[in-house]
Amino acid sequence: MSRTEPATVTRVATIDATLVRLPPAHPRSGARAAERRPRQVQHALVRVTDDNGVCGWGEIPAVDADRWRALVDGFSPALLRHSWMRPTEAALAWVDLPHDPAVASGLDVACWDLWSKQRGTPLSHALGGERTAITAGVTIDRQPSLDSMVLEVNRQVGSGFRRIRLEIEPGWDVEPIRAVQESFPFLVLQVTGRGRYTEDPADLEALRALDEYGLLAVEQPFADDDLAAHARLRRDMRTTIALDTSVDSLATLDDAIRLEAAGALNLRVARMGGLTPARRAHDRAADAGWDVWCGSDGESGIGRAAIVALASLPGISLPSEMPGAGGIHARDVAVPPVRAHDGITPIPLTQPGLGHEIDARTLRALAVRSVTLDHQGSRPADAASLA
């Protein structure tokens, strides 16, 4: 859309919400992994359609009963009552509702997809992206042993990933990093603490020891709400400190920048509440001189397509998260699949919007529950209309 082209008002005519059950690609190894993630997860796919039949898609990860009710009874009816000219205005529809960034994110992405399709432009270009492809990274959770860790890293490196992100915790940090670096001395490596460390002397000693390994970043060592601890550690280490779950809004990002709590940001669309706030967070972090990459909340193809579009922005300076070798989910509805090839994920530029189609048969097979909402209310969705 050119700067001189007049904006048109968009009115969402219908919203289709489909709860899908996504089986994992393969069983998780280790008792701890099994405790952390269920064998199957439920996500919601949402489709918003305008009066002309143009539609946009979004995804809401990890949907429970409360989140489904928020989507169907709160956020979707509010969006149906709200008209907007640009997708940046869509969030005004639910500004007075209880905060649920994941639900907001799914509808926000769907509005961006719709708006891009109305104008015949790829979503990455609508956001201001400049890339034709992104460099992909992959996360490896804690493994049962050092040997299994090295084997898993070898599998991902063999698949072409350029950056490996290891999960660490007290007692599982220096040794796995050393083991991986001895086997892959030129590998780009970063670590995430997932908030498991404290400022206990033993924890601080272990974190400071990571300075000797040339890591790309040490991410989220302390609790979400302890920006001050991150700021103190940042002053004490050469390695870049990155934030993840500490930043769930523009306000918390502003606080982190003001406190100099980090030098890098794991930017997640679902945690921020959609592409609109995520793009603004990208701008603020990049302006502050921070490195930025796009993370994941375990999204399937539709959600990952939005992540890829966001990762095309010029301030994304580090490899962004993609599923590793073997994938996450055994089945997906996005066609073609959104994944990395030899460590690179292409950005769709030949189709408007997200650039991926919906496999209707797979969507119907995975659907647990579906509802269609319009200006007359809600009703169970016709199975034939799911895609």
Automatic annotation (TrEMBL):
InterPro entries: Enolase-like_C_sf, Enolase-like_N, Enolase_C-like, Mandelate_racemase_C. The keyword Membrane does not apply. Residues 146-240 form the Mandelate racemase/muconate lactonizing enzyme C-terminal domain. Keywords: Metal-binding. Gene3D superfamilies: Enolase-like C-terminal domain, Enolase-like, N-terminal domain. One of its GO terms (molecular function) is catalytic activity. PANTHER family: O-SUCCINYLBENZOATE SYNTHASE, O-SUCCINYLBENZOATE SYNTHASE-RELATED. This is O-succinylbenzoate synthase.
